[in-house]
Amino acid sequence: MQVHVRDNNVDQALKVLKKKMQREGVFREMKARRSYEKPSEKRAREKAEAVRRSRKAARKLAQREGIIASPKKKPRAPRPGMRPAPSAANATH
Fold first, then answer.
1. Host H or E run for residue 49
2. Cα separation of 4 and 10, whole Å?
3. C-alpha span between 11 and 2 (Å, rounded)
4. Measuring CA to CA, how many Å separate 59 from each of 22, 63, 68, 79?
5. What PANTHER family does its record include (predicted)?
6. Helix and strand tally (H, E) in the chain?
7. What's the CA gap between 68 and 59, in Å, rounded?
8. Where along the chain do its domains lie?
């Protein structure tokens, strides 16, 4: 895994590295290896994860098909230093 540090901005590079490690599942694996997990506990955990994934997939499919309502999207707060997007009400032509 490789992260480039731009303009000596180590904080930003660390943030990118942590995100990459999270996506790869490094933190989850480190937590799992901290202590021994009995085979029966491993089977139960994996089965619970499979159930959770299948329920999530079914929920997403139902939302796409309109069977259940999609969750309301929260309006995102503008990031500092960013200009607000031009709205249709403020547009002058």
1. helix 39-65
2. 9
3. 15
4. 24, 6, 8, 31
5. MITOCHONDRIAL 28S RIBOSOMAL PROTEIN S21, SMALL RIBOSOMAL SUBUNIT PROTEIN BS21M
6. 3, 0
7. 8
8. 1-35, 38-69
Contacts 24+ apart (CB under 8 A), 28-37: none
With a threshold of 0.85, does the pTM exceed it?
no
**Cα torsion 37, 38, 39, 42: sign:** negative
What is the pLDDT tens value at each position of the chain, 93 positions in all?
888 899 999 999 999 999 999 999 999 899 889 999 999 999 999 999 999 999 999 999 999 998 888 888 888 877 777 666 666 655 555
- Of 12, 13, 81, the C-alpha closest to 3 is 13
**Unique residue bearing structure tokens 């002058």:** 92
Strands (E), the chain: none
- For tokens 């959770």, what's the residue? 52
Structure tokens at 15: 């943030």
- Tally of residues, the chain: 93
Q: Give the type of residue at 50.
A: A
